[in-house]
Each structure stands twice: as structure tokens, then as C-alpha cells.
Amino acid sequence: MKIAIACDGKDVSAHFGHCEGYAIYNATDSVIAYSETLQSPGHEPGRLPVFLAEHGVNLIIAGGMGARAVQLFNDNNIEVILGVSGPVDVAAQDYIAGKLKSTGSICNHHDHECSGH
After folding, report:
1. Contact predicate 24/32, CB 8 Å
2. Rounded to an integer, what distance in angstroms lies between the CA atom of residue 18 and that of residue 59?
3. Buried b / exposed e across 19-36, counting CB within 10 Å, b at 16+?
4. Parallel, antiparallel, or unpaired: how do β-strands 31-39 and 21-28 relate?
5. Mean pLDDT value across residues 54-78
């Protein structure tokens, strides 16, 4: 499994579409390892789910994203976990340990950062 975590520096980004990049982790048999960081190609509606699918991503973790983006990820066979904050390494470890669950933190506004994630 390949996991992408929307990140700003070493922390989970509050909104996947405005993040600096994606920390990529490979998970195999309850073991997770950092692989690389992909720079974000920029916020262009509909592009990011395809971009991450092209890189073999199966799961995206972020603070929040819009409902349309969630649907586009699902259409690309990418699971979405939202409502996550803190260091990306901790989020990756929590996911593989079964401790990370989506809160369904959906953003319903445009052109600015989501708050409260």
C-alpha cells in the first residue's frame, strides 16, 4: 500500500489542496517506511487525485478537503482519511497501527484555508 500525507513541512496540512507537498510512505505487513516527498503540482481542481493515482497512491491523509475532491479520490480508487493533524510520521504510524480514523472533516468553502482541522 502506498500512502500520501498532505504536508506543510513535517506536519499534516490543514487542507490537502494548499499543501507544500505529499510525504509518501510504503506500508507492507504492518511495517511502514518513508519513501519520498512529492512536491505539489499546485491547486488545480481535479488534478491532484489523478496526480497521486499516477504515483500509485492508495490512501490520502489530510486535515481537510472539499466533498468534490473526496469523490474524485474515491473515483481514482484512493481512500481518504480527514481530520488529521500533527507530525506526518506520527500520522503514518497511527494509521498502520489502526489508530487513525477519518473524522469526515470536509471543507465547504473555497479560495482560503480551512480552519478547525
Report:
1. no
2. 18
3. bebbbbbebeeeebeeee
4. antiparallel
5. 93
